[in-house]
Design goal:
By secondary structure, the chain is mostly helical. It has helices spanning about 1-40, 45-50. It starts with a helix and ends in a 9-residue tail after the last helix. The mean pLDDT is about 80.
Length: about 60
């Protein structure tokens, strides 16, 4: 009985080690896709305004 419990625990662990990277990939791909689409849809005026913003404070 104890041998079967160990076997099922190992199978369950192996399934999670396969599923978690797939979930992480889908989440990261979705974030990348949404960010790319949002960046492509910015109006030219907004793009120009954002590109002219300073990256550092001018008083330092």
């Amino acid at each position: 009985m104890h041998i079967l419990a160990g076997t099922f625990h190992r199978v369950s662990h192996e399934e999670w080690t396969t599923i978690v990277p797939m979930i992480a990939f889908v989440v990261m791909f979705t974030v990348f896709l949404i960010t790319t689409i949002r960046a492509m849809r910015i109006k030219p005026e907004e793009r120009k305004r954002l590109s002219s913003m300073p990256l550092k404070d001018s008083d330092r």
